[in-house]
Design a protein that fits this description.
The chain is of the alpha/beta class and 567 residues long. The chain folds into three domains: 2-116, PAS domain (Beta-Lactamase); 132-292, Reverse transcriptase/Diguanylate cyclase domain (Alpha-Beta Plaits, 2-Layer Sandwich); 307-557, EAL domain (TIM Barrel, Alpha-Beta Barrel). The protein contains 22 helices and 22 strands. The protein has an eight-stranded mixed beta barrel, surrounded by four helices. The longest helix is centred in the middle third of the chain and has 22 residues, at 294-315. The radius of gyration is 37 Å and the shape is elongated. The protein starts with a helix and ends in a 9-residue tail after the last helix. Bound molecules: ligand C2E and calcium ion (CA) (2 copies).
Length: 567
């Protein structure tokens, strides 16, 4: 026996009803009837279902409910499904309406109205997260790119639809995080986001790209001046201090500005140019904006070509090492060498490290390059000592770039190279510059200690050119200090430089550091440094850096001689 229609409807988990061929209600379960009566108290059997249903809507839906029902009843739609936004404004609910035709004894349609509010909420949540930054609530990169793509297309259709992109990167934000902690850093980013948002018009888009990077899309602007004036506003706004945790925090940012043009096909191209312009603001020292020009693209192009060429040079063995002797000012002996990278270019000849090291740093090639130089020079020293057993204790100083030093596996790499080449670790000195110490001092201390545990010595290079004071470097367990050649070079002409060198040497000694002076070009430099009790020196006065093949000869000529100029 067939169950009673009402019993059947009551047993369904969702609101359900049956309509006749005219769309009138012929049966309904209780929950469905109650729902319909909330909207239309007169609702009951024999009344048009579609009208009541349409009244529940808080906003229009694509295909009117009545039309949907009619189409199913007429057989022109096999089934009609629609998510209905219902309820009063403020307490929105969602119902999934489903209308299926009924044939047989009750021709008409079966209607269900399931509550899908939770599911919709979840969907909206996911959608929101997909396009928003959780920290600041701003749009994220994905949404920004979407909007930018629309702007690019709009400009192609109508040349008056000008747009511009401002790409922002906070200056030295790492320092903020380090000084005040990440929680305050995050809080500051939120406040910055808020301050930026206030400067924008309704139609502009502000997004956070992650970290301390933001981007602004300005639409329908009159020209570049509008973009520049926005950049100035942003700089001015950030220049005012932020008050957090009862402290005034100052931040600045670097901005790259790109004006949209028909030449742009894809958002990535605009962002790449904006990033380049931002980068040049950074090079300017930050707190600055730069408008992108095509010249920068040429620069990028050149950088990429250099990278390719450098990669090739490393594989082809064109990267070699020259060695500059370091001389003891007390004994006059050569006590060691500094390894200095050279690029022996087949056509351009010898290329100085100042030309290719920065590119290697930027592109990340420095990791491989640094390892190559370390390996090559350690091997050379081992050979030299093996061939000349009377040259004891010659040390090897190798320059280590910041990026290389900060790699998590740097110490392991040094340890591998020590084992591979068989060099006595006590003879190896790694030269670090202050830039390595600024970002994360605690981490730097840990790395230096791990290096020292291998037996390697650690030197602070170019001392005096950075910001750190001697008391700052006291935190780091260095073995020796190199006075930058800019002080030594004109020590005798400029009284002030002599005083600086004197002070550095005296304080270094108090900290138990040995001192090496660089850039000794004249006999007077050597004499003055000896009088200041500087331990060692290097410079053109003793010898220029020489190729590895010439080391034996240089040493034989010089070994145990009075430190005479070799050239
Ligand atoms: P640096 O570590 O300060 O190296 C000393 C530089 O001073 C060398 O320049 C050397 O040739 C030059 N020099 C030596 N004596 C004199 C002198 O009496 N007068 C003058 N005016 N200069 C002198 P170089 O070889 O051109 O290297 C420049 C910089 O490139 C180095 O400065 C170092 O920072 C970097 N560098 C060189 N090789 C490497 C390397 O293998 N790895 C890394 N990361 N950096 C390197
Ligand atoms: Ca050096
Ligand atoms: Ca130096």
């Amino acid at each position: 026996m067939l169950p009673d229609l009402h019993d059947l409807l009551e047993s369904l988990p969702s609101h359900a009803a049956v309509l006749d061929m005219a769309g009138l209600l012929v049966a309904s379960n209780t929950t469905c009837l109650e729902l319909l009566r909330e909207i239309d108290p007169d609702m009951g059997l024999g009344r048009p279902f579609g009208d009541a249903c349409a009244k529940m809507l808080t906003q229009p839906v694509g295909f009117a409910v009545q039309e949907g029902i009619a189409a199913v009843l007429a057989g022109s739609l096999p089934r009609y499904e629609m998510d209905l936004p219902c309820g009063q404004a403020g307490s929105q609910t969602w119902r999934a309406l489903c209308i299926t035709p009924l044939h047989g004894p009750f021709p008409g349609a079966l209607v269900t109205l399931a509550d899908i509010s939770r599911q919709k909420q979840l969907e909206e949540h996911i959608l929101h997260d997909a396009f928003h930054d959780t920290l600041t609530g701003l749009f994220n990169r994905a949404l920004f790119i979407n909007r930018l793509d629309q702007s690019i297309k709009r400009l192609k259709r109508s040349p008056k639809a000008l747009y511009a992109v401002l790409y922002l990167d906070m200056d030295r934000f790492k320092l903020v995080n380090k000084t005040f902690g990440h929680v305050t850093g995050d809080r500051l980013l939120m406040v910055i986001a808020n301050r930026l948002q206030k400067q924008l018009r309704e139609l502009d888009t502000l997004a956070r790209f992650g970290g301390d990077e933001f981007a602004i899309l300005l639409e329908d602007i009159a020209g570049l001046e509008d973009a520049c004036s926005m950049a100035e506003t942003v700089l001015r706004q950030l220049a005012q201090s932020f008050r957090l945790k009862k402290q005034d925090i100052f931040v600045t940012c670097s901005i790259g500005v790109v004006l949209g043009s028909a030449a742009y096909e894809h958002p990535d191209q605009v962002l790449r140019d904006a990033d380049n312009a931002m980068y040049s603001s950074k090079e300017h020292g930050g707190d600055h904006y730069t408008v992108f020009d095509a010249g920068m693209r040429v620069l990028t192009q050149r950088r990429m070509e250099m990278e390719l060429a450098l990669r090739h040079a490393m594989e082809a063995g064109e990267i070699t090492v020259h060695y500059q002797p370091i001389v003891s000012l007390t004994s006059g002996d050569v006590t060691g060498f500094e390894a200095l990278a050279r690029w022996q270019h087949p056509r351009q000849g010898l290329i100085a490290p100042s030309e290719f090291i920065p590119i290697a740093e930027e592109t990340g090639l420095i990791n491989e390059l640094g390892a190559l130089i370390l390996r090559q020079s350690c091997r050379r020293l081992v050979e030299l000592l093996r061939a000349n057993p009377d040259f004891t204790d010659l040390t090897l100083s190798v320059n280590i770039s910041g990026r290389q030093f900060k790699r998590p596996d740097f110490v392991d790499e040094v340890s591998t190279i020590l084992a591979e080449t068989g060099i006595n670790a006590q003879l190896l000195k790694l030269e670090l510059t202050e830039s390595v110490l600024m970002d994360d001092a605690d981490e730097a201390v840990r790395t230096i200690k791990r290096l020292k545990a291998l037996g390697v010595k650690v030197v602070i290079d170019d001392f005096g050119t950075g910001y750190s004071s001697l008391s700052y470097i006291q935190r780091f367990p260095f073995d020796s200090l190199k006075v930058d050649r800019s002080f030594v070079g004109n020590m005798n002409e400029a009284e002030q430089n002599m005083e600086i060198v004197r002070a550095i040497i005296a304080m270094a000694h108090k900290l138990g550091l040995e001192v090496v002076a660089e850039g000794v070009e004249l006999a007077e430099h050597r004499t003055a440094l000896s009088e200041l009790r500087c331990e060692s020196a290097q410079g053109f006065f003793f010898s220029k850096p020489v190729p590895g093949e010439e080391l034996d000869l240089l040493m034989r000529k010089h070994w145990k001689n009075e430190a005479q100029p070799l050239l």
